[in-house]
Amino acid sequence: MFTGIVEELGEITAVETLDDACRFRLRGPAVTEGARHGDSIAVNGVCLTVVDHEGDEFTADVMAETLNRSSLGVLAVGSRVNLERPTAVGARLGGHIVQGHVDGTGEILERKPSEHWELVKISLPADLARYVVEKGSITVDGISLTVVDAGPDFFTVSLIPTTLALTTLGIKQPGDPVNLEVDVIAKYVERLLGAQGSTK
């Protein structure tokens, strides 16, 4: 489990394309400290497994399902990515419960800068709109954010200077894709209420 508090802005250093998958090599000095084979690291909000690591770099395999479901397929050598290690049991939950299981992708539609923060508008797939509410939580490229406004096919978030400086949302522009993970609690509630209704 993750919390959506990005630890560092990493970089793709190599991409190996396979028949039905690809292999990334990524640089991330903070997240590779103490890393072992089989550990999980969230890359732009996608939970990936460390295959091997050397120095401040690690390798992860990405299967076709993940490439189709997320925006990882557009990454290339030099791409910057948000990196986060799983939260430790008993640690502070700084963001919200994030699984690293991307529900879909959105697109940066608009950026409105102001003196101390920036409002970003992001497209929202129709099948995810019911899980997104004003002042609720959403994960964008692995970043735990609070929804400002929720529309039928978009939502907005406000970004503080720290988020702009330390994550990919500081450099992404209109037209760029982002990974979205909605609040998992909302999905469980929907499923439970649906099951309860079907028994009446």
TrEMBL record:
Pathway participation: Cofactor biosynthesis; riboflavin biosynthesis; riboflavin from 2-hydroxy-3-oxobutyl phosphate and 5-amino-6-(D-ribitylamino)uracil: step 2/2
Full protein name: Riboflavin synthase
Coiled-coil spans in chain: none
Catalytic activity as recorded in UniProt: 2 6,7-dimethyl-8-(1-D-ribityl)lumazine + H(+) = 5-amino-6-(D-ribitylamino)uracil + riboflavin
Entry annotated with the keyword Repeat: yes
Source species, domain of life: Bacteria
Keyword field: Repeat, Riboflavin biosynthesis, Transferase
Annotated Lumazine-binding repeat ranges: 1-96, 97-193
Classification via Gene3D superfamilies: 2.40.30.20
Species per Swiss-Prot/TrEMBL record: Streptomyces salinarius
CDD domains: Riboflavin_synthase_like (cd00402)
Family matches, as PANTHER family: RIBOFLAVIN SYNTHASE (PTHR21098:SF12), RIBOFLAVIN SYNTHASE ALPHA CHAIN (PTHR21098)
Ranges of residues in domain Lumazine-binding: 1-96, 97-193
Function: Catalyzes the dismutation of two molecules of 6,7-dimethyl-8-ribityllumazine, resulting in the formation of riboflavin and 5-amino-6-(D-ribitylamino)uracil.
